[in-house]
Amino acid sequence: MSRVSLLSDLLSSIGARSWFLGDDATRRIALPELAGLCHRLVSSRGEASGVRLAADILKGVRALDDAEAERLFAILAEEFGPDEAALRDAAEAFASSPGPATLSTLQRIAEPPRQELFRRLNLAPGGTAEIVRLRERLLPFLRRDRERLGPVEDDLRHLFQSWFNRGFLLMRPIDWNTPASILEKIIRYEAVHAIATWEELRQRLAPADRRCFAFFHPSIPDDPLIFVEVALTAEIPASIASVLDPARPVLAPDAAQTAVFYSISNCHAGLAGVSFGSFLIKQVAEDLKETVPSLKTFVTLSPVPGFAAWLAGLSPAGIEKLEANEKQAIAIVGESDWTASPAKVEAARPGLLSLAARYFLRAKRPDGRPVDPVARFHLGNGAMLNRIMHVGDISAGGLAQAHGLMVNYLYDLPRVEQRHEAFASEAEIAASRAVTSLLPGRGSAMKDVA
Amino acid sequence: MSRVSLLSDLLSSIGARSWFLGDDATRRIALPELAGLCHRLVSSRGEASGVRLAADILKGVRALDDAEAERLFAILAEEFGPDEAALRDAAEAFASSPGPATLSTLQRIAEPPRQELFRRLNLAPGGTAEIVRLRERLLPFLRRDRERLGPVEDDLRHLFQSWFNRGFLLMRPIDWNTPASILEKIIRYEAVHAIATWEELRQRLAPADRRCFAFFHPSIPDDPLIFVEVALTAEIPASIASVLDPARPVLAPDAAQTAVFYSISNCHAGLAGVSFGSFLIKQVAEDLKETVPSLKTFVTLSPVPGFAAWLAGLSPAGIEKLEANEKQAIAIVGESDWTASPAKVEAARPGLLSLAARYFLRAKRPDGRPVDPVARFHLGNGAMLNRIMHVGDISAGGLAQAHGLMVNYLYDLPRVEQRHEAFASEAEIAASRAVTSLLPGRGSAMKDVA
Amino acid sequence: MSRVSLLSDLLSSIGARSWFLGDDATRRIALPELAGLCHRLVSSRGEASGVRLAADILKGVRALDDAEAERLFAILAEEFGPDEAALRDAAEAFASSPGPATLSTLQRIAEPPRQELFRRLNLAPGGTAEIVRLRERLLPFLRRDRERLGPVEDDLRHLFQSWFNRGFLLMRPIDWNTPASILEKIIRYEAVHAIATWEELRQRLAPADRRCFAFFHPSIPDDPLIFVEVALTAEIPASIASVLDPARPVLAPDAAQTAVFYSISNCHAGLAGVSFGSFLIKQVAEDLKETVPSLKTFVTLSPVPGFAAWLAGLSPAGIEKLEANEKQAIAIVGESDWTASPAKVEAARPGLLSLAARYFLRAKRPDGRPVDPVARFHLGNGAMLNRIMHVGDISAGGLAQAHGLMVNYLYDLPRVEQRHEAFASEAEIAASRAVTSLLPGRGSAMKDVA
Amino acid sequence: MSRVSLLSDLLSSIGARSWFLGDDATRRIALPELAGLCHRLVSSRGEASGVRLAADILKGVRALDDAEAERLFAILAEEFGPDEAALRDAAEAFASSPGPATLSTLQRIAEPPRQELFRRLNLAPGGTAEIVRLRERLLPFLRRDRERLGPVEDDLRHLFQSWFNRGFLLMRPIDWNTPASILEKIIRYEAVHAIATWEELRQRLAPADRRCFAFFHPSIPDDPLIFVEVALTAEIPASIASVLDPARPVLAPDAAQTAVFYSISNCHAGLAGVSFGSFLIKQVAEDLKETVPSLKTFVTLSPVPGFAAWLAGLSPAGIEKLEANEKQAIAIVGESDWTASPAKVEAARPGLLSLAARYFLRAKRPDGRPVDPVARFHLGNGAMLNRIMHVGDISAGGLAQAHGLMVNYLYDLPRVEQRHEAFASEAEIAASRAVTSLLPGRGSAMKDVA
């Protein structure tokens, strides 16, 4: 038995109980009683029967309707925070005489009992997944009551950053031999290019030139956290349609030179802000490099979610200063069905690409980062903006958000760290010549048009 | 595929890399450079190459000799604590105007960067096990420099309480089909009744009336955290020798009425104080109840590690006040080879049992808890002191620490919670009539002799 | 690790190579060369490179078109049979002086080299599955050339009876956690009540009151040999529609009293005549009895595939002698859409049930067995014909083959052996009173109408 | 899930029942009754309850003492052979008019019902292993009653050649992560260089430059059929002691150029004559070549079991004709403790090697094959006799059987087939120049001395 199968064997001997609360496990418990159970669980009295108490609480939480859930979160905010008086004393004690002892007291008192509550809820079978769902339910309420509920959310996110540490995550391939119960979740979670049927799913998983990988947490083994879909191709594809075409010839893996990450989806709203996408992409790239040695290039095929909105938000004055071909492009993409006309498509090309270059290289948020969220993600990971593709995605969604543009981000593994640092410290955008050369001359600097 | 095998399958697809740094992975790195790598890892610049950085640091740490290790811990204490000035400001701000904003700032600044450092070290393959070893190396230095190193230890323990949450642990049976690489660790870790040979190990695992269970962490699947050995018997055994006798007839499991937990061993000094023993005992009891329905009684067969030392520490005045048979017992157990004489054994019995009853029921630490550490553990779990056994362990060790006494703690599952609470809140010691009736009359209250 | 996971672990360490030739592994080899390779493989010279030779031959066979395949089978018949002259000598030698030596020679020479050829073809990765497919390809040719090709088929069937011995088969549950690659085969193989979509499949596998089990051979682990679908119900259902109704309330398994085997499908034509259905049903019944202790009754819900054809084949004279209600039923079921009229349905009931009773209890093949093949299967397994259900299956197929009738066969485990023997030796049909009482009075004995 | 883990998962869902009769499952059944059960099992009446009947018979067989077992085998010989009268008729019918029909009848009647009996015994859980043990018990009786019992043994061997077809066997690595229950069998089965302790076992399995592989049958997953131990070395070692030296430096696998098969052991006497050793060696060689690409040479380090006996059997006249150094060697190895004297060791070298060359290249059995059984095995596999090593094994056993000689057989994969054929058809012995050059001049041809 290899060291790997030690792990497998270890886990095969575990009762389902250890991670599964039961799909239908709910129990009506009145809110005050539920709060009482929570208090009991964090008290020392809760230790001996923690597993049962935690399971009861989680079943009770599941049965809450939205209004009740919001009130429960308020209770968690109000009754499970640090003891303010004690904390004030500790803060004063530290401020007046800083040192290990006062620091330690301060730290201890500053940690809200809520964190211990969440850790003990995790004693219940399936607790981890339930606590993730708890944050999922909390997030909508945050918008209207951030001041009160924010600390609850802080505690959950803080906990998840520890629990879902990449060191604890397991990457596994998703393929046509994967259990249907997981595959149906892949269909449901796919967030970039929707999967309509099992046959479409099969097209993305079964052919020899397709790969898919997901991160799992050992305590939630039936539900992926994030997954990425990869196409092995000869060259960098120019459109998503060519990648997904079921009639394309299947490439023998050893003839593939390019791995295209064409879709990456987070699966759980409750884990928002707990980032593992960067780790997944890099590990997949490294694994593929080893198992498919012919691969030379690792790129994404990515949407440009903010382009259309950014363009629509340009001021008339800004538009005035654009190049002629840019104005022409704006006019064309304003027409309905422009993609049906090859002539219009060609006419829009130079201007649209020029605008896109401005969008990526010049349009910045107040913090100096690009306005495009996908660009921020990949550039932050150390990738380079490699190519902008006209009519890369002419689905309704692709036209609505990006007038059909798609882009590649290139993961050049040896340079990823350096690019990450330049982006992190200087907000320096790594872009290929092919992209930078699309920028119009210096006369039309972005500041002028934004 | 059952939900259970989902978990198994999930894990079988993982490369060893994800949890294994390599047995021999060390690299000499000078201490200043190592500290520099640590700073780099916690900085934002460390994100992109965190996995590699973390692995390098852990290899470097492995290569440190003890003096270097102590200096590294000092660096962790001094350079990776909270920013004192900022924390002082935050403490003052909170003290003067408590509220969500000042609280949140205070909490954020109070958390030492060390914690983030440890979390990022966990990115390395095998990181979890390495960080446990880190604390193992730290503990000896603590004794002579608690003030400086204490906060480092606090951070590790705090982290481990989150990481090794029982909800993340997996219980698995250890039996004669377990891989040899794990079994050799069982031999090494056994802390109560040493296992001298593989044949002795076989005797504890293979017979139909023996069970053993361990907790594992999914990130350290080849190394148990804690394990318990169980004998299935007809009645509560009177001595450890009768349990371990290789010549005893093997009992058919369905004839067993009693499950005897005769050895429980923690495996890693680095996890000291992160308690899972209570969870293991209770889960094993519940599982056995289901799989061996004939079982009625769940008891330990436990050593009494503090008895001889306590007895030796009694003052002459205290001894004076003892009952006659107690004094006689003290005299007898002072003779060498007394256990070889049946007459002496019988003569010592009443006095020794009486002294033991005092020891368990009257001898208290300043906090009001029993002085016996094993008693504190099981009573704290909600067990009851059920029986005290004369000549229960007449091995050299058993005589040295307890003049041959052993005890049973009874886990009566329906009453465990209530007993736990009574012990936790009132330090109330649950003891059977058989035990309490051993106490000598009221004239000799413990206070008098201790 | 349990003994079970020993098996699992054993097999997890096997390279795919050991059982998988590759989906697309074909190679054009001219027929004479292919025959030459076969001769070489059975010769002693083939031993050293048997694995490669066998793989080459199987790839070559795959590439054959039908005409070539038929010629290959003819070659196998003609060139790989026993040596006729030698066999004649051996037969004469045995006939003239029977004894161990002449017998042993006779047996050795009587075994066709084909059998050794097939055994050696099995050396190739995936050989077992390929040899099953070989028989699948052979079967159609048999119809027109049984004399020549029959011995080839005999040899394959004889081999399969040894290789697919129930002792080598593995039963496993098929559920919603089963890999999609296997589930798509379940959809394809379902022979009784077709599964149109993945959602329909899910309805048969995922609900708590559904079960499905299949037999696999360890050398063909990705392809079931036979599977049975089971519904857990309160009572014996009266129609297949009620069983398959997706809107039915799901029954908690511990409330189930009846296990209904409503579909059993053989998966491979190449294994025709190698019977494992009886073993599967009995093992499923025994396993369910243990895991769902509330189950009391094990019945099938079975089609009546021969009823309509039998009825249509009755002679006018035979029909003349039927009871009035039987004639009426014949008239009604001859009308289109009769099931749409509750009045007609009711009017047809008594006559149709009476005719069905004749069909099951009186219509016999020359060998004295019932004409209904499903009845022969279940009665041969030791089941009892328990109930005949009017309008049990009013799908187009159900009406066409059985005018909507379905039946239950009851597996009363303690009586299965005795009923099997009575059927095997006396052709005695076990039928409940509910069924036998449907037979019309003695005046209309079956002989009269058949 | 990979195709491989499909297999694993398939098997993990199997109850132990499907392959395990139980270690202690025996039941006293009187011999006549046992014979009756066997008759019943082969009859059609046995079908319905075959699983139970088969289990009962196997338990009964286990309980038989040797005398009873011998009588049972006699019953199997006498009552479960072909019907002689019918077979005589069939033989005559075929002899007088050969054709498919008479052939088919002849074949059917010539097959003894014993074969069907054994196949049905295999229905029992654990049947396969039990039937192997049956043959193990039969073999000793064969020596004194081959005429009567031979046909029973023929049937079992014939069956095993089908059941234990290499296509059904699974190769798995044996290492330090293998379950102890299997490792203790490795200790017990090791037939070439005994393993005295678990520590010695560890030395053969755990170091990075050691490998061990075994064949298993899926129906006997806890018990290997055959295993081979391999050392990865820089060069071909000159002695077994250097291979087994626990103090040797461990070689990094990627520095290894040679794989030395230094021990190969069959595990079950009941499978004698069912050969899989050749397949195991070749598959291990191929697998190692792929996983350790630095390997260039695959050799055995083999004993020479027949050398001393052959030498002792030389006639005085034959000895007379030997070369002078040969006579000197014979004299030296006749002295006790000669290996303790370096001078004697050196003095014996040329003569002993010369004698060994005669032994391997000239000493033949009547069928023209070498007298050395290990030589017949490896040469028959297509290996070449590569080197003869003086003082290769100076253990007591090595001296007793071969005066300390060991040899290498070289597996040169591309030439294995051709050498196998030359040996199979011409009894041509492939030997290196290093070996053939040891032969003394033509004057001393083997015929003269043997």
Automatic annotation (TrEMBL), chains A, B, C, D:
<dbReference type="GO" id="GO:0006633">
    <property type="term" value="P:fatty acid biosynthetic process"/>
</dbReference>
<feature type="domain" description="Malonyl-CoA decarboxylase C-terminal">
    <location>
        <begin position="167"/>
        <end position="412"/>
    </location>
</feature>
<dbReference type="InterPro" id="IPR038351">
    <property type="entry name" value="MCD_N_sf"/>
</dbReference>
<dbReference type="InterPro" id="IPR038917">
    <property type="entry name" value="Malonyl_CoA_deC"/>
</dbReference>
<dbReference type="Pfam" id="PF17408">
    <property type="entry name" value="MCD_N"/>
</dbReference>
<dbReference type="InterPro" id="IPR042303">
    <property type="entry name" value="Malonyl_CoA_deC_C_sf"/>
</dbReference>
<dbReference type="InterPro" id="IPR035372">
    <property type="entry name" value="MCD_N"/>
</dbReference>
<feature type="domain" description="Malonyl-CoA decarboxylase N-terminal">
    <location>
        <begin position="80"/>
        <end position="164"/>
    </location>
</feature>
<dbReference type="Pfam" id="PF05292">
    <property type="entry name" value="MCD"/>
</dbReference>
<dbReference type="GO" id="GO:0050080">
    <property type="term" value="F:malonyl-CoA decarboxylase activity"/>
</dbReference>
<dbReference type="InterPro" id="IPR007956">
    <property type="entry name" value="Malonyl_CoA_deC_C"/>
</dbReference>
<protein>
    <submittedName>
        <fullName>MCD, Malonyl-CoA decarboxylase MCD</fullName>
    </submittedName>
</protein>
